[in-house]
Amino acid sequence: MLFKKKIERAFKHLSSKKVADMTPEERAEYNAKRGNLEKGDLLSMNLAAWLTILPLALLVLLLIAGVPLLLIWIFG
């Protein structure tokens, strides 16, 4: 692997800095840096993701199923 040492060092850093092992002051600082989510934020992020992905997925499905059906209808 090209950056094996860097990746191992990053994983080691992440495993040593777990949120569960933090003191309440460290956890508050961590949450302030990360940004606290409010009550409806997760729902709105999921809704936005679905509204972004679903139309594209439906378009791809329409192309995969619609083009052969159109060709069968025209030449069949």
Walk me through the structure.
This protein is mostly helical and 76 residues long. Helix content is 78%, strand content 0%. It has helices at residues 4-16, 24-34, 41-75. The longest helix has 35 residues, at 41-75. The chain is elongated.
Q: Care to give the gist of this entry?
A:
The chain is an all-alpha fold. The chain contains three helices and no strands.
List descriptors.
elongated, mainly alpha, 76 residues, 3 helices
Query: What is the overall shape?
Result: elongated
Task: Please give the share of residues in helix.
Answer: over 70%
Binned strand content? under 5%
| Radius of gyration from CA coordinates | 24 Å
In the predicted model, the low-confidence regions spanning at least 5 consecutive residues are none
Structural class: mainly alpha
Along the chain, the helix and strand elements come as: HHH
In total, the number of strands is 0
Main pleated-sheet profile: none
The average pLDDT value, as a whole number, equals: 84
Count of DSSP-assigned helices: 3
N- and C-termini, Cα separation: 53 Å
